[in-house]
Design brief:
By secondary structure, the protein is an alpha+beta fold. The chain binds ligand PCD. Ligand PCD is lined by residues 221, 253-256, 369-372, 506-510, 513, 545-551, 664-669, 672-673, 676, 679, 736-741. GO terms for molecular function: anaerobic carbon-monoxide dehydrogenase activity; copper ion binding; iron ion binding; molybdenum ion binding.
C-alpha cells in the first residue's frame, strides 16, 4: 500500500482513527432532531390508508379544536401558492400534497402544525378524511394492460408507460443469439427494498419574515443542490437563492435515501413561511419505510450467449422497471436507468443489447440508488447470476469460466460494448487471491464429497466491476447542474488549515480522509486540518455525496487545490532561499535546494511567510479552491466468494465463510475502507436473504415496520474476511477510486450464487432474492428432498 509520510503527518495509507468518532461515540453528534429553536413548532403528517383513492373531503375541525394545534395544511392550501406539485430529480412531477387523488398507501394527505410533537400527532388522529377508494395498479406487469386506469393523465399520458431506454446494438446481438452454440436464459427479479438508516429523514425549516431568509436544517446528502431546487421551486414566493441557507450537520446514514426532496421538507418550508416560525418535521420509522423513495424493483429477462467451451460472446437483457406513481429516480438526467449499462460486467465480449421500460403503478416513487451507483447493483446481479448459470449449463467450474473470460490487464482502458471506458483493472489476481484465502479447490472437493451424502453445500462467486464517481460534466448532471465537486483550502498563518467541500459525509469519515489527502500533498499534519461540509453559506458549491463520488470528485479537488498551494509555496521558498523555482525539490512537508538539502523551508515557514514576508507583488494569504471535473468515472472492482451450508431438513441457510477482495486503487485510509466494506457487505446480505417490501393486491404495504421488515444485524452477519489488491486509477490525481458501494453491489450475487450452487444438482438454476429459508424449504419439498 502506498504510504510515504510519517504517522505524525498522516498522509495516504495511514489507518488514522476517525476524527469524527470522538463526538459520535460520546453521543455528541449534532443531528437535526437535536435542533431546538425558540418558538419552534412541530409538524406531523396525515397519510393515506389507500393506495389509490379520490379525496372527497378533509375535515380538520376536530383537530383544530385540540389546544396547541395551530394549523392543518392541505393540498388546496398549497395550490394557492402553486406549491402543491414539485419536480422530481428525473424531470417528472410529484405531489407535495394532493388536491384530489392519492396515489399510494402512506402518501402524505395533509399536515398538522402544533406547539408540541405529540399534540401534532393527536391532531393527525383527529383529522377526518373521506376517501373514495379505487382499484390500484400494484403489479407492474399489468400496468400496460388495456382497461387499466391511466395514473398520470396530468402528464398527458394515455397509458402508464414512462419511458423506453436502450443501449447497445440490437441487430448484432439478435444475430449472435440466433446462431450461438449455447444460450442461457433466466428471469431475474430484484424486488423493492428500502434504505434503513439509523436516522430517518427530517428537517427544521426556519423562515425569518423580517429578513425574508430561510435556514433549512435537514438530512440531505446534497445540500447545495437542495438550495438550488428550493430557489427554483419557491423563488416565486420570495425564496431567492441568496436568502436560502441549507445546513446538513451530522447525518445518521444516507445510503441514497437522503438524496431526494421529499414532500415533508417542502410542507415544512411552506408552514414556516406561512406562520413565520421555525417548523420541525422528523419522520418516524414507519413513515420512512412506507413512503420515502424505494430502491430496485427491476424485473430482468437475462440471456447470455457463449460457445460450448465457455467463451462468452454476448448479453441481452430486457427489463421492466416499476417506478411507482412518479419517476423520482435519483439518476443523472441523461441516464434514466442509471448506469445499468455496466451490466456487461468484468468480461471481454463484443456484443450486448439492453432495453428497459419503466411504468407507473400505485406505489411510492423512486428509485434511489441504495448503496449503488445508480442501478449498478441490478446490473451486477444480472451478469454475475448469468455467468454462474452458464457455468452450470456447460459444466465448467464457475471460477475457471470467469478467469477465462475476464478483460485482461493490458486491455485497459477497455471499451465496453455498451459504451463505457473502464479506466483500469486486473481481475484475475483479485479472484485468485480470494480463491487462495478461502481454499477454493479444497472446498470444491468437500462439496463433491458432501453431495454423495445428500448434504447441501454451495460456493458462490461474484467478480464485479463497479462504475462510480459521477461524473464528467459533458455527460453527467442532476437537473441540469453539472456533477463536478469542489474543495476550498485555507491555511492559517501558523500552518493549521480549514478545508471545505461540496460533498456531505453521512458517516463515511470525510473529516479524516480529506485531511489525509491534504496532509499528503502539503505535509501539514492531518490532525491540524479541520474539515467542514454541509453548510451552503460557507462551503463551495458541489453536488454532494452519493454514488461513491466523494473520493473521485471532491477528493481529487482536494489534491488539486493543495497542489495549487504547493506551487505558491514553491514561489515563496524560491524567494526566501534566493534560488530559482527550478532549483527546488519537494519532499513531503518542505522544499529544499537541489544538492544542498540543508537549505530548506518547511511548509509551516512558507505559509507563515505568505502572511508576513511574501515577495512584492504576490497576493497575500494561503488559500486555494478547485472545482474538479473528472475526466472519466472510476471503475473499482472485486471478487467475492461465499460458502453456504443448507440444512436439508429445514431449509435454513448458514453462511460459513465470506471472503471479499476489493480493489479501489490507491487507498487513503485502510481502516476506513475496511469499515466501509464491512458495512457494505452487511447491506448486501440484507437484500440477498432478508429484505423485500411486500404489497398486497390492494397496494397495502404488508411489512412497513421493523416488526416485519428484516434488517440484518451482527447476529445474522457472518464474519467478513476482507483483503485487497491495488490497481491505481490512471486519471485521478492520487490514483484513488470510490469504494463505498462496491460491497453492497458485490455481495448479493455471491450469496445467491452460493445458495443456488448448493441446490443446482437438484435442477435448480435460479432463485430470486431474498432467498429465505421458506423459499429453500419449498424447493426441497418440490424436489422431494423433504418428504
Ligand atoms: N476511501 C478511502 N480510499 C479510497 C476510497 C475511499 O479511504 N480509495 C474512503 C473515503 O475517503 C470515504 C469512504 O472511504 O471516507 C467512502 O468513500 P467513497 O467511496 O468515495 O464514497 P463517498 O462518496 O464518500 O460516500 C458515498 C457512499 C455511498 S454512495 C453510500 S450509499 C454509503 C457509503 O458511502 N453510505 C454510507 N458508505 C456509507 N457509510 C456510512 N457510514 N454511512 C453511509 O450513509 Mo449512495 O449513492 O448514497 O446510495
Amino acid at each position: 500500500m502506498f504510504c510515504n509520510t510519517s504517522k505524525e503527518i498522516g498522509g495516504l495509507g495511514h489507518g488514522l482513527k476517525r476524527k469524527e468518532d470522538a463526538r459520535f461515540i460520546q453521543g455528541k453528534g449534532h443531528y437535526v432532531d437535536d435542533i431546538k429553536l425558540p418558538g419552534m413548532l412541530y409538524m406531523d403528517i396525515v397519510r393515506s390508508p389507500y393506495a389509490y383513492a379520490k379525496i372527497l373531503n378533509i375535515d380538520a375541525s376536530k383537530a383544530l379544536e385540540i389546544p396547541g394545534v395551530l394549523a392543518v395544511i392541505t393540498g388546496r392550501d398549497l395550490e394557492k401558492y402553486n406549491l402543491h406539485w414539485m419536480p422530481t430529480l428525473m424531470s417528472d412531477t410529484q405531489m407535495v400534497l394532493p388536491t384530489d387523488t392519492v396515489m399510494y398507501y402512506a402518501q402524505e394527505v395533509c399536515a398538522v402544525i402544533a406547539t408540541e410533537r405529540y399534540i401534532a400527532a393527536d391532531g393527525v388522529a383527529a383529522v377526518e378524511v373521506e376517501y373514495e377508494p379505487m382499484k390500484p395498479i400494484v403489479d407492474a406487469h399489468k400496468a400496460l394492460d388495456p382497461g387499466m386506469p391511466i395514473l398520470r393523465p396530468d402528464k398527458g399520458k394515455t397509458d402508464n408507460h414512462i419511458w423506453h431506454w436502450e443501449a447497445g446494438d440490437r441487430e448484432a446481438t439478435d444475430k449472435l443469439f440466433a446462431n450461438a452454440e449455447v444460450v442461457v436464459k433466466e428471469q431475474v427479479y430484484i424486488p423493492r427494498i428500502h434504505v434503513a438508516s439509523i436516522e430517518t429523514c427530517g428537517c427544521v425549516a426556519d423562515f425569518d419574515p423580517i429578513e425574508a431568509h430561510l435556514t433549512m436544517y435537514m438530512t440531505t446528502q446534497a445540500p447545495h443542490a437542495i438550495r438550488t431546487v428550493i430557489a427554483l421551486v419557491a423563488g416565486h414566493v420570495g425564496l431567492s437563492e441568496e436568502k436560502v441557507r441549507v445546513i446538513a450537520s451530522d447525518i445518521g446514514g444516507g445510503f441514497g435515501g437522503k438524496v431526494p426532496v421529499y414532500p415533508g421538507y417542502v410542507i415544512a418550508i411552506a408552514a414556516s413561511v406561512l406562520i413565520g416560525k421555525p417548523v420541525k418535521w422528523i419522520e418516524d420509522r414507519m413513515e420512512n419505510l412506507q413512503a420515502d423513495s424505494f430502491a430496485r424493483d427491476y424485473d430482468m429477462t437475462c440471456e447470455l450467449a457463449a460457445t460450448k467451451d465457455g467463451k462468452i460472446q454476448g448479453l441481452r437483457i430486457k427489463t421492466l422497471a416499476d417506478h411507482g406513481y412518479t419517476d423520482a429516480a435519483a439518476n443523472p438526467s441523461k441516464y434514466p436507468a442509471g448506469m445499468f449499462s455496466i451490466c456487461t460486467g468484468s468480461y471481454d465480449y463484443g456484443v450486448a443489447f439492453t432495453e428497459m421500460d419503466a411504468v407507473y403503478t400505485n406505489k411510492p416513487p423512486g428509485g434511489v440508488a441504495y448503496r449503488c451507483s445508480f442501478r449498478v447493483t441490478e446490473a451486477v446481479h444480472a451478469i454475475e447470476r448469468m455467468v454462474d448459470r452458464l457455468a452450470l449449463e456447460i459444466g465448467k467450474d464457475s471460477a475457471q469460466l470467469r478467469m477465462e473470460n475476464f478483460i485482461k490487464k493490458e486491455q485497459f482502458p477497455y471499451h465496453s460494448p455498451l459504451g463505457w471506458e473502464y479506466d483500469s483493472g486486473d481481475y484475475g489476481p483479485a479472484l485468485q487471491k480470494a480463491m487462495d484465502i478461502i481454499g477454493y479447490d479444497e472446498l470444491r472437493k468437500e462439496q463433491a464429497e458432501k453431495r454423495k451424502n445428500g448434504e447441501l453445500m454451495g460456493i458462490g462467486i461474484c467478480s464485479f466491476t463497479e462504475v462510480v464517481g459521477a461524473g464528467p460534466s459533458k455527460d453527467f448532471d442532476i437537473l441540469g447542474i453539472k456533477m463536478f465537486d469542489s474543495a476550498e483550502i485555507r491555511v492559517h498563518p501558523t500552518g493549521k488549515a480549514i478545508a471545505r467541500f461540496g460533498t456531505k459525509s453521512q458517516g463515511q469519515g470525510h473529516e479524516t480522509t480529506y485531511a489525509q489527502i491534504i496532509a499528503q500533498e502539503l505535509g501539514i499534519p492531518a490532525e491540524h486540518i479541520h474539515i467542514e461540509e454541509g453548510d451552503t453559506d460557507t462551503a463551495p458549491y458541489g453536488l454532494g455525496t452519493y454514488a461513491s463520488r466523494s473520493t473521485p470528485t471532491a477528493g481529487a479537488a482536494a489534491a488539486v487545490a493543495a497542489r495549487k498551494l504547493r506551487d505558491k509555496a514553491r514561489k515563496i521558498a524560491a524567494y526566501l532561499l534566493e534560488v530559482s523555482e527550478e532549483d527546488l525539490e519537494w519532499e513531503v512537508g518542505k522544499f529544499f535546494v537541489k544538492g544542498a538539502p540543508e537549505k530548506s523551508k518547511t511548509i509551516q515557514e512558507l505559509v507563515f511567510a505568505a502572511y508576513t514576508n511574501h515577495p512584492q507583488g504576490m497576493e497575500a494569504g494561503f488559500e486555494a479552491t478547485h472545482y474538479y471535473d473528472p475526466p472519466n468515472l472510476t471503475f473499482p472492482f472485486g471478487s467475492y466468494i461465499c460458502v453456504v451450508d443448507i440444512d436439508k431438513e429445514t431449509g435454513s441457510i448458514k453462511i460459513r465463510r465470506f471472503v471479499a477482495i476489493d480493489d479501489c486503487g490507491t487507498i487513503i485510509n485502510p481502516m476506513i475502507v475496511e469499515g466501509q466494506i464491512h458495512g457494505g457487505l452487511t447491506q448486501g446480505l440484507a437484500p440477498a436473504m432478508f429484505e423485500e417490501l411486500i404489497y398486497d393486491e390492494d397496494g397495502n404495504m404488508l411489512n412497513g415496520s421493523f416488526m416485519d421488515y428484516l434488517v440484518p444485524t451482527s447476529v445474522e452477519s457472518p464474519k467478513w474476511e476482507t483483503g485487497h489488491t491495488i490497481t491505481p486509477c490512471p486519471h485521478h490525481p492520487i490514483g484513488a477510486k470510490g469504494v463505498g458501494e462496491s460491497p453492497t453491489v458485490g455481495a448479493p450475487p455471491a450469496i445467491a450464487n452460493a445458495i443456488i450452487d448448493a441446490l443446482s444438482h437438484l435442477g435448480v438454476t435460479h432463485i430470486d432474492i431474498p432467498i429465505t429459508p421458506l423459499k429453500v424449504w419449498n424447493i426441497l419439498v418440490e424436489k422431494g428432498v423433504i418428504e
